[in-house]
Amino acid sequence: MKRFLSITRDPIDEAGLVADRTLSSGMGAAVYFSGVVRGQEGSDAIVALDYSCFVSMAEHQFHRLFDRLAERGSIESVRLVHRIGRVAVGESSLWIEVVSAHRAGAFAACQWVIDEMKQVVPIWKTPVTAANASSPSNPNPTA
């Protein structure tokens, strides 16, 4: 299974990622999901989320998830980009694509990776409200 992972402070170039997609002739489904920061976190209005992580551990955990995904079979590739740092409302913080022979497998795999990621990958988010928006993002020295 082909795989691509990027943990980045840069905005996610969704159009570029889609344009760079490759799949073999036996694949009939390319499913992607973009997780966008919404203006509400719980009951609080927010202007952004600050994401932090231990990059090396996050990469390790993502690759373990990708290994488990490969064991499921029929998945040709997975590509995942996750932002760290401050991500404003309306911007994408997560982009994932799964290429598979059939749509059901691609949708299920995409959902599975996201659900598992939230359980095991050490990426944390802190809501930023209008009141604390002028304070700098809490940079992680290992990020």
SSE order and pairing:
Blueprint: E1 2-8, H1 14-19, E2 29-36, E3 40-41, E4 44-45, E5 48-53, H2 55-71, E6 75-83, E7 85-88, E8 92-100, H3 103-120, E9 123-128
Parallel strand pairs: 1-6
Antiparallel strand pairs: 2-8, 3-4, 5-7, 5-9, 6-8
Helix pairs in contact: 2-3
Index terms:
143 residues; alpha+beta; four-stranded mixed β-sheet; three-stranded antiparallel β-sheet; 3 helices; 37% strand; elongated; disordered C terminus
Structure explained in plain terms:
By secondary structure, the protein is an alpha+beta fold. Helix content is 29%, strand content 37%. It is built from 3 helices and 9 strands. The strands form 3 sheets. The chain has a 4-stranded mixed beta sheet, covered by helices on one side. Strands 7-5-9 form a 3-stranded antiparallel beta sheet. α2 runs antiparallel to α3. The longest helix has 18 residues. The radius of gyration is 16 Å and the shape is elongated. It starts with a strand and ends in a 15-residue tail after the last strand. The C terminus is likely disordered.
